[in-house]
Amino acid sequence: MISRRSFCKKSILILGGIAVPLAALELFDPKKLAADRSGPSTVRWVFLVDTHKCVGCGFCVKACKIENEIPYDANVSRTWVERYVVTRDGKVHIDSPKAARDGFTSTSIDQGALGMLKIENSDIDKAFFVPKLCNQCDNPPCVQVCPVGATYQTSDGVVLVDRSWCIGCGYCVMACPYGVRFFHPVYHAAEKCNFCYHRISKGMKPVCVEACPFGARRIGNIRDPNDPVTRIIMTERVNVLKEEYGTKPQVFYVGLTREVK
Amino acid sequence: MKNHVLRPLFVAVGVVVLILLAREVLVPADFGVQERGYMYGWHRKGNEADWKNVRAKYRTTAYCKECHQDKYADITGSPHETIMCENCHGPGLAHPNDPQSLHIDRRRELCIRCHFRLPYQASGRGRIRGVDPATHHPEAECVLCHYPHNPRWTPGKEARR
């Protein structure tokens, strides 16, 4: 017959015995967990693209490839410009030859393996260009799927890739709904736009912003209410890409239409 | 308890200890949960500095104009004012120490990035003066007739601003 006293004693002993190994197996440093709750950063980088201003010259793509050492002739790029041509029959033709590295110097649509599609100027309902780059999502799916912690978000909102830590599994390339990730042909690691982190952290602007002669690309700090880019995002009609994915993208577009995917 | 029951247990414990030891050795000290929490901030802190230390190659017009005042004066106020020097001349990182690193791109392909006529009225491209390079003096470099630092300037006349 077990007494109440011995039941309580044994219960405490067993609970204590269970609790000790759990604490011992805890791999996180408490200091690291404390850092988790620290206050928000004063900087949160955001991007603003004005599709009305983009003329498809591709200087941004050229500058990005050189600045960030993406092999110039490899068919990969951190940023690219898409051309949308909506014809009178309601069809939407989209192309981005060589990521628009050399601009758009043809009226024909590059359909890849299907060849070039000739479009008469009189058939065009509307045509425009949309620059694309990493959205530095506030809820980045590429970071969540990384099994080794090789990709992460900094306190100022930029998603970076640790090339020495990446194992090349490709989950992040698959997870990104915007298709901005690819494998770097030289470093053999996942690669993506990082708003030129080496430039913005030194007070410079990303090289695509500098290279754009038309002001179609701008960068700003959304935590600064007086930032001109923040003013535009807060007061004008801006949109983001694929909002329905819940990724909270931080690249805002002026002049998006329903054709833009 | 019999020994044959305990032996695999010892092996399992040994394996766990080995993995924990290997983890201690292989994982850098600054690897862990950083500012953005476990879901987004689980990384090696030192990599942020690695990215910050990458050298910027493009120095922008503000750097070029320090020496090339004449060219800067030409382009200021012209329709090409907003094009930064390095768009056509290449990144200025190694310049002026290594003049060979900079080349002047005089190819027609450079100019038709903007000046190939595309009648896209929904974008700014439709308002840029454009040509069809197949018919507009296909044999010549654009700079033969047009001064790129001020396209409104024509030889023998005063520059129009």
Describe this structure as you would to a colleague.
The complex is a heterodimer of chains A (261) and B (161). With 261 residues, chain A is α+β, with helices and mostly antiparallel strands. Chain A has eight helices and 13 strands. Chain A has a four-stranded mixed β-sheet with strand order 11-1-13-12, with helices on one face. In chain A, strands 3-2-6 form a three-stranded antiparallel β-sheet, with no helix packed on it. The model of chain A has no long low-confidence stretch (mean pLDDT 91). Helices cover 38% and strands 4% of the residues of chain B. Chain B contains seven helices and two strands. With 161 residues, chain B is mainly alpha-helical. The model of chain B has no long low-confidence stretch (mean pLDDT 89).
Contiguous helical run count of chain A: 8
Distance between the termini of chain B: 98 Å
Oligomerization state? heterodimer
Structural class of chain A: alpha+beta
Gap between N and C termini of chain A, in Å? 73 Å
Order of helices and strands of chain B: HEHEHHHHH
Radius of gyration of chain A, CA atoms, in whole angstroms:
24 Å
> Which sequence of SSEs, written as H and E, runs from N to C of chain A?
HHEHEEEEEHEEHEEHHEHEE
Structural class of chain B: mainly alpha
What strand line-up does the widest sheet of chain A have?
11-1-13-12
Write the topology of this structure.
The complex is a heterodimer of chains A (261) and B (161).
Chain A: H1 4-25, H2 30-36, E1 45-50, H3 59-67, E2 80-87, E3 92-95, E4 109-110, E5 116-117, E6 124-132, H4 141-145, E7 151-153, E8 159-161, H5 171-175, E9 182-183, E10 190-191, H6 197-200, H7 207-211, E11 217-221, H8 228-235, E12 238-239, E13 251-254
Parallel strand pairs in A: 1-13
Antiparallel strand pairs in A: 1-11, 2-3, 2-6, 4-5, 7-8, 9-10, 12-13
Chain B: H1 3-26, E1 31-33, H2 37-41, E2 42-44, H3 46-52, H4 60-64, H5 69-75, H6 85-89, H7 108-115
Write a brief structural summary.
Chain A is of the alpha+beta class.
